[in-house]
Amino acid sequence: MRRVIALALLGTLVLTACGPSGADTEGPLVVYSGRSEELVAPLIDRFEVESGIETEVRYAGSDELAATLLAEGEGSEADVFFAQDPASLGVVAEMMSVLPDETLSLVDQQFQDSGGRWVGTSGRVRALAYNTSTDIPLPETIDDVLDPAWSGQLGIAPTNGSFLAFVAAMILERGEDGTRQWLEALAANDPVDFEGNAPIVEATDSGEIEGGLVNHYYLLRLRAEGLGQNTENHFIPGGDVGSLVMPAGVSILSSTARPEAAQQLVDFLLAVGAQSYFATDTFEFPLIDGVAQPEDVPPLVEINAPDVDLSELADVLDLATQLVAEAGLV
Amino acid sequence: MSSATDRLAIRARDLTRSFGEVVALDHFSLDVWEGGIVTLLGPSGCGKTTALRVIAGFESAGGSVEIHGRTVLDDGRFVPPEKRRVGMVFQDYALFPHMTVASNVGYGLPKVDRAPRVGDVLELVGLTGMEERMPNELSGGQQQRVALARALAPKPEVILLDEPFSNLDASLRDRVRRELRVILTEARTTAVFVTHDQEEALATSDIVAVMREGRVLQADTPAHLYANPADPWIAEFLGDADVLESEAGNGRVDTLVGTFETDLSGRVSVIFRPENVQISLGEAPNAVIAGSEFFGHDQLVTVALDGGTRVRARIGPRPIYQVGQLCRVRATDARIYPG
Amino acid sequence: MTAGLATAPRSRAGPNRYRGGWGWWVAAGIALLPALIPPVSLLIQVLGSGTALAVPPARLAELFANTILLTAAVTVTALAIGVATAWVTTRVDLPFRRGWMTLAALPLVVPSYVAALSLIAATGPSGVLFEVPTPYGFVGSWLILSIFTAPLAHLTIIPGLRAIDPATEEAATGLGAGRWRVFATVTVPQLRPALVSSGLLVGLYTVSDFGAVSLLRYDTFTRAIYTLYRGQLDRRPSATLSLILMALAIVILVVERRHRSRAMMHSQRPPRLRRLISPRRSGLVLSLGLLAVYAFVSLGIPIYVMTATVMRGVAFGQAIGGTLATEAFRSLALALVAALVIAIAAFPVAMVVTRRPGRLSGWVESVVWGTYSLPHITVGVAAVGFALQWARPLYQTLIFLVIIYVAIFLPQAAGSIQDSLRRASPDLENASRGLGHGPVATLLRVTLPLALPGLLAGTALVFLSVMKELPATLLLRPNGFETLAIRIWSSTAEGFLTRASAAGLVLLVASIVPLFVVMTRELSD
């Protein structure tokens, strides 16, 4: 028993040592990041070095962080919210300050909030990852995945934020009834459930399913791990939400105690260095001009993205979740 | 006690067993005749419980054991305990705490006709009507009787009992002991007891085997054993005894309390039992009363001889002596040992 | 003389009663407070904003049935495995016996979703081990959960086995019972308290599990609850379902209490030191075979899959991740501290339940086990709400995180301690008081040592559970405090397979040494 107590005391020491770094007069810049540490940490490190601003990041899911921000309210410690998808950004848009014009002008109109409260940092496109040995004809429009040929072979991640954003965009495009019909038809076609996008691509690659609706960069991530030889991305050319472009984005809380530092981070994310990082290291589309596109994907301009006002995604997100549940997909 | 027509119920030969560095049995040998009651008597740690466990089959050992002529332990053989048909009553009873009295007692019986036999055996030990009680609801004496009933129920030919009375209070102990002896004799069950209490051993057994450090020193009837202990240690272990050292020669030895015949010569120990020591007043004194313990039916009086050695005398309830009284002390019998 | 039972027959009503003070109730009440946070938050939520059922009743019934089926099946098999591994490593003289004992407990540290991922990777069309179709659905969930919750039973039953008086088994043997009959009629019944505790631990854990059933696509109640937390700001549906789940758990607990054995299994004296069975060749092969197969399936396969992934990734230039060492330290420190705190907190709860059985202690048990059955995300969300509302300075601190761990994991420690305490007669404590030792001295010198096997088993359980905990930790941790479990989850979700597997391997390795330390001597002799 004494050994256990000794170990625990040791543990307490370690914990207190590892704890938050204590009283800085100004305190670090607190970032809530819905983007994972693996992707973001190198960027943040670089930012810290370049700007000298100490930064503390909280990593979790974008939707979770949005909910947390709402719960924390004005007393929230967060200064910057860096999210995976526009829906999460939209949910908390009212807590955010309007970004300056110089920032907003860097990025195309469709990749920012209509009210200027968030700006996109990199582009992520919905795609169909498919197994190269499949016989199923590749879809021209999003309705083609409802084809019986895909029965039992199409992977989806109905609880994933990107899928819900995709459904939300469909509501904006087709309305509630049209979306409901589509979802019910999808459910009737026996789709295969996954927890996230990466498992869909892995399953496609291993041959378990013929394809699935994912974000484009997961395949490229998998290839970096030495897998993915049997899979390709297909960007649905029909101009509908099948190839929805969802930017990751960043916004500054209006309650922040460090507005200048926060702005510096936003500028950093939209500067060439960070944007190239997105292209080369995370396989996402840069959103400012003058940065090379990622390899192995068609350029963003060639992808026939739908004309959807991303700012409105947050408004229909609850409805999207409800329709997905009602269709029996979850 | 035994004759050529009786069979040997248990024959243990040269049992040897160590636990790590501790030698528990050292060429232990014992013969137990059918229907006999044998007690293994010895101080704690002498190996008596181990001997019992080897006979029962819960331990293995070097040497051999035969039960009713059947070899159950040998160089090449080890018959597991469940096949030996030997009943055992454990020191702490080991009743199954999760079963009723009836289930405990009936455990060793086949399912058919279990209930009548359980009833019979419970009646035998005086626990009729307790079938549905749980062990933790019973007193110590009742638990002991359940343990006994459980061991007797399958009608074993041999039963082993490890200090079965040590958890009982004095009056209960005597009564249960007597009753048990009656039960065993009536059933003609061979029994081997283990105890460190010599009174119990002498009172209950046909044969007492005195053990020390893993072996049997002397095995005999209680009367013979008591009167003729083979060495001073046994003499002192078996009952009260006092020692006087003296020189022997010419066929006798002189002591302060009397002269005795002996063939030994040189230094000897002379051992007296209190019941063989007498006290009288009025003759030339050779001792002083040093103290006494009163037991109701007798007294144990301690006297100090010239030179300070103390000797005890067991006398009747009267007369009551005073400490400091001068008296004459005389022994009527003694055993003499070399050294 | 031995400390036997009293010579007067007792009534059946309350032989366990012990003249302790109200101090235990106060301590238990304090220990209970964290466990109250989730249900009270849920109730407030529901009373305030009403309930909402986002799931149609027919589907709800289906989820219910699925959950019950899985729970029952997993409980039976996990207990069977746990009893087997516990018995073999406690009773049989095996080479490296204590090592096997530790190995059989280790799988508990593998998060259920990692286990499920290993199964998926090991099977399927390009499975690394068996090219069989991956058993999604009930079969896979049942398999994975049984294998990886068996340690809950294993660790709980070991102290139970050790406390059985060997004389009772010998007595049965002497009465003619063969090995199996002794096991079935004498050993197992005396294990009953430990078996019941194990059953509750395994069953209610299965109810709350999300990782395995989501990956293996088996729709349970908890899966529905998690889904309701995604992308939904309205907390009513999730709160409603969580409360229903908690009610289910309490029903199970009440049923168990009704059937609690009336046999008081107090040892009359400390059991004589038992010697191990020296097996014959066939017994040795069987025992080692069982343990080896279990270790292979529960540890070998995941380790193989993870190692293969790391090697492949590294060959392709992927980094393992430089933060692993820090995260390992953090996980270990947090888990050890939490384990100790929870063991301490569980003690008064266990005392109150065993020594003062009655309606009040029944309520205590209900709260504690009820919260244990809640999905961790429910607990986390409730805790966040509570902290923001009432305890702002504690928000996002390690102290609060540990407090919430107490809420979640208390029964794991309390169950084991209860079993040990049940074995020890309260007379021992009374005797100590009678000899002039005050309550504190009695606690330290009599009660604590008696409860030690259960205490250690419980500490080991909690340590492993905290090492792998995810949803509540994600929500409540301070910014920048990443654990191995979080690393694994985050890397997996983003497809950083090499880093995920490397972190998984580190999780296993880091857990072995503390586990072994906790399990030495007192548990294994």
Give the proportion of residues in helices of chain B: 10-25%
Structural class of chain B: alpha+beta
Helices of chain C, by number, come to 21
Number of strands of chain C: 0
| Overall average residue pLDDT of chain B | 88
Question: Strand order of the main beta sheet of chain B, please?
Answer: 6-7-8-3-9-10
pLDDT < 50 stretches of chain C: 1-19
Query: How much β-strand is present in the residues of chain B?
Result: 35-45%
Task: Report the sheet with the most strands of chain C, covering strand number, pairing sense and barrel closure.
Answer: none
Short description:
The complex is a heterotrimer of chains A (330), B (339) and C (525). Chain A is an alpha/beta fold.
What do you see in this structure?
- The complex is a heterotrimer of chains A (about 325), B (about 350) and C (about 525).
- Chain A has about 325 residues and is an alpha/beta fold.
- Helices cover about 40% and strands about 15% of the residues of chain A.
- Chain A is built from eleven helices and ten strands.
- Residues about 20-25 of chain A have low confidence and may be disordered.
- Chain B is built from eight helices and 20 strands.
- In chain B, the strands form four sheets. Chain B has a six-stranded mixed beta sheet, sandwiched between helices.
- Chain C is mainly alpha-helical.
- Chain C is built from 21 helices and no strands.
- In chain C, helix 18 packs antiparallel against helix 21.
- Chains in contact: A-C, B-C.
- At the A-C interface, helix 1, helix 2, strand 2, helix 3 and strand 6 of A face helix 10, helix 12, helix 13, helix 15 and helix 18 of C.
